[in-house]
Amino acid sequence: MRFVVVTGMSGGGKTTALKMLEDAGFYCVDNLPVSLIEKFVELVAMPNSEIVKVALGLDVRADQSFADVTRVLEHLKNTGYQFEILFMDADDKSLIKRYKETRRVHPLSQDGRVEDGVRKERAVLEKVKKKADYVLDTSHLLTRELKEALDRIFINNEEYNSLMVTVMSFGFKNGIPSDADLVFDVRFLPNPFYIDELKTKTGNDKEVQDYVMGFEEAGAFLEKLRDMISFLIPNYVKEGKYRLVVAIGCTGGKHRSVTLANALYESMKNRGQYGMKLYHRDVTNQGT
Fold it and tell me: How far apart are CA 99 and CA 115, in angstroms?
């Protein structure tokens, strides 16, 4: 039997993940009282059980201590039950935004301040996050991308180290992305903006891509950048990093940065045991 415990920050995507696992053939149970967890596991693990894939949703509730949940999980492991922990996470800004949009009350926010609830919850879940087999950061993850990550782990049984790499293009004139871990400047390349037939196009168009990548410097930059990112990724994984944002910028974020971001993404998306996504921040903005 494959037994997955799905937990994480409130608003991090636990419910969505459970629905996707259910669609994938998992028997899913959510919000089971702590006192029933051990009995439930014993029942589904019986030799004559027809259930072969189980996902159990556990999270912070105002009416129960998560420390009790942790103790039950430790007891199950010591008893010989094997399970994986999937931790659904997101940065504080995204969690607060989601709560404000839905107008829901955070389970640990007694005074109504979502910020306080998120802070308390992080402290409560710190230990279980460290023990998680997989951590999925949904801060900027599309539903389709979340499904792809879950399929890789639980359907295709691929190795997955929980690192989500985002390749982002941007324009320096609109500011450097605040969440960028690595920033690269491609303004040394000739600018398609000054070519009449390319000015209104973007790095998503083949004509612009051919123009930018037609320069030897662009190919050399891409090769060196790919080699460096490939070197850094396993070291970031070793240090427990779950999200890496590689930002490539030009003046306006429409031509050169988009072209190089696309090229880097395509050259690396199937090369490693990590998730990868592409995001163009300023491609719709006007400018060079």
Answer: 10
**Which pair of tokens denotes residue 98?**
């989601």
Contacts of 90 (CB under 8 A, 6+ apart): 9, 11, 12, 13, 98, 137, 138, 139
Cα 24 → chain centroid: 20
Q: What pLDDT sits at residue 285?
A: 53
11: tokens are 């608003």
Structure-block tokens of residue 242: 């779950």
The segment(s) of the chain belonging to CATH 3.40.50.300 are 2-155
The pair of structure tokens assigned to 116 is 């306080």
pTM of the model: 0.71
Tell me how far apart the alpha carbons of residues 19 and 177 are, in angstroms, rounded to a whole number: 32
Q: Is the pLDDT of residue 226 over 80?
A: yes
Residue with tokens 């919850």: 121
- Can you tell me the distance from the alpha carbon of 70 to that of 202, in angstroms, rounded to the nearest whole number? 50
What's the CA gap between 249 and 169, in Å, rounded? 6
Strand pairing category for 84-89 and 2-8: parallel
CB 72 within 8 A of CB 34: yes
- Domain 2-155 annotated CATH 3.40.1160.10: no
Please choose, from the candidates 283, 284, 238, 265, the residue with its C-alpha nearest in 3D space to the C-alpha of residue 166.
265
